[in-house]
Design brief:
Blueprint: E1 2-6, H1 23-34, E2 40-44, E3 58-59, E4 62-63, H2 67-76, E5 80-81, H3 92-101, E6 105-106, E7 111-115, E8 118-120, E9 123-126, E10 129-132, E11 136-142, E12 148-157, E13 166-168, H4 171-182, E14 188-194, H5 197-206, E15 212-216, E16 222-226, E17 229-233, E18 240-249, E19 254-263, H6 272-290, E20 299-301, E21 307-308, H7 311-314, H8 320-332, E22 338-342, E23 351-352, E24 356-357, H9 358-364, E25 371-377, H10 378-390, E26 398-400, E27 404-407, E28 412-415, E29 418-419, E30 425-431, E31 452-455, H11 469-479
Parallel strand pairs: 1-2, 2-5, 5-6, 12-14, 14-15, 15-17, 22-30
Antiparallel strand pairs: 1-18, 3-4, 7-8, 7-13, 9-10, 11-12, 16-17, 18-19, 20-24, 21-23, 22-26, 25-30, 25-31, 27-28, 28-29
Helix pairs in contact: 1-2, 2-6, 8-11
Bound molecules: zinc ion (ZN).
Length: 485
């Protein structure tokens, strides 16, 4: 049996300037193995409906919200999927629509649908019939001489994305419970998981009889072997896939597992059947973007180290991606003293590998939004910087320009090595979202605050670098010849 694994796929089209990934390459890899072995299955180990630039776009009068990915996964021949934390970013009805549109199976051992007063499995709906997503999914495979083997799947999701419409049970206890119910009825049990690697290691220790743990959530590839249990995670955006092969000896009650990481680079062709779907959705997105002044296919950064947009980084400290955005805002605004950028504007939760296109920038900053500049009294600036630091870990964590530093020895903020004076007036540029007062714990940051003395007025037109932070980044890179140190 061949299980082809991808996980954390946010993009239907190839990334890295077209050189890597994309669901059409995933489809080709499946076909390659399917030609040699009819018992070949494609598994998605969570995180594929969000975040995506498509989430801010409309089609047929509705938000797209992962519809493009479900169509691409259907075309690529996906067999089985598990929920990742990001599947619950979208609204309840949108997720139910995506489940209905999926031609593949789902398995969910510890994530359930919470509705008024009851908790039940998520389901596909056919007319009035409900087809519930199982806590354990079982399938039969047959070899050339007709011997049948049964494989059971457990599906585990990290309970981190708390939404009103989702209920989680404990991942480890649920997995053990489902394993016990499966183990005597099947020849091999696989756990498809979307959780942190440390929890996969605990799972392998708790259930040493698992034939494999096929996981996601980390974005860079992972491989661990705990006892006999191999844990595999491929690179995000299908830059690679794991090929997990099982040799099942039914009479001897034995499973041999071998794993191989396959890079989905230019050597893997784009499957034409799947590519029709990719091109359809790419055209829909391009029409949307052209209308707001972007050319998605244009290269923005030719040469640079990979840019880090992972939430585990950007919501805790500055990265080369946040520094690029802040520098671009600084260049776009009229000589600000301080630039403030809320890390929650970055929604890519991924590492961008150059060449980076305008499309990559749009997916990094899907909301866009303009730049505002105000004159602000120092006491408000200090209060805002303090709160930005206290927001560490959420989208209200603030990044700022290099002239600003926090002096930990004296617990004070410095601007160009001089303490920020509560009484002095500073020119502060920020995203327009920040100035609405809607950012976490920053409700006071809005134009009516008496410590904001004036708001700089500009004439916004499409393409103006202050009209959209993404246009600011484009101008900034154009001025630098598309290369980043
Ligand atoms: Zn995840």
């Amino acid at each position: 049996v061949v299980l082809i694994q991808v996980n954390d796929v946010y993009e239907i089209a190839p990334v890295s300037g077209g050189r890597e990934g994309g669901m059409a390459r995933v489809a080709s890899l499946k076909k390659e193995f399917l030609a040699k072995n009819p018992n070949t299955f494609l598994l998605m180990a969570g995180d594929f409906l969000s975040p995506s630039v498509f989430n801010s776009l409309q089609f047929e009068g509705k938000s797209i919200r992962g519809r493009q990915m479900v169509e691409a996964m259907n075309a690529a021949g996906t067999n089985l999927a598990v929920f990742g934390n990001h599947e619950f970013d979208i609204r309840e009805q949108e997720l139910m629509d995506r489940i209905n549109e999926s031609a593949f199976e789902w398995v969910a051992s510890n994530a359930f649908h919470k509705t008024a007063g009851k908790v039940e499995p998520f389901y596909k709906k056919f007319g009035r019939k409900k087809d519930e997503i199982q806590q354990a999914f079982t399938m039969e495979v047959k070899d050339a001489d007709g011997t049948i083997a049964k494989i059971g799947f457990i599906g585990i999701t990290i309970p981190s994305n708390r939404q009103d419409y989702v209920n989680y049970t404990d991942p480890l206890r649920s997995a053990k419970h489902i394993y016990d119910s499966l183990k005597n009825n099947v020849d091999a049990v696989i756990a498809i998981t979307h959780q942190e690697i440390k929890d996969d290691i605990l799972l392998a220790k708790a259930i040493p009889g698992l034939a494999a743990i096929i996981g996601g959530h980390e974005h860079d590839m992972r491989y661990e072997k705990v006892g006999k249990v191999q844990i595999t995670k491929a690179h995000a955006n299908a830059r690679s896939a794991y090929v997990v092969k099982l040799k099942i000896k039914t009479k001897r009650d034995k499973v041999n597992t071998s794993t191989e990481l396959r890079y989905l680079d230019e050597k893997i062709p784009l499957d034409s059947h799947t590519n029709v779907v990719i091109e359809k959705w790419t055209a829909i997105a391009s029409r949307n973007f052209a209308s707001i002044g972007f050319d998605p296919s244009k290269v923005l950064i030719k040469k640079s180290v990979p840019l880090d947009g992972r939430e585990t980084e950007t919501r805790f400290r500055s990265t080369n991606l946040t520094r690029l955005i802040v520098s671009a805002m600084e260049a776009a605004a009229p000589q600000p003293d301080v630039v403030l950028f809320n890390s929650g504007s970055i929604r890519i939760d991924d590492i961008i590998h150059p060449p980076m296109t305008q499309y990559d920038l749009i997916r990094a900053l899907p909301f866009g939004g303009g730049i505002q500049q105000v004159e602000m009294r120092g006491n408000l600036l200090i209060k805002t910087l303090d709160q930005g630091m206290n927001n560490r870990g959420n989208g209200g964590f603030l990044l700022y320009n290099e002239a600003v530093k926090y002096d930990t020895s004296k617990n004070r903020w410095l601007l160009k090595e001089t303490p920020i004076d509560p009484e002095q007036i500073y020119k502060v540029a920020m995203t327009d979202y920040l100035l609405t007062g809607r950012e976490t714990n920053l409700a006071y940051l809005e134009p009516k605050n008496t410590d904001i003395l004036s708001v700089y007025r500009y004439q916004p037109h499409i393409g103006h670098p202050m009209s959209d932070i993404r246009q600011a980044v484009i101008r900034y890179m154009e001025a630098r010849g598309f290369e980043l140190e």
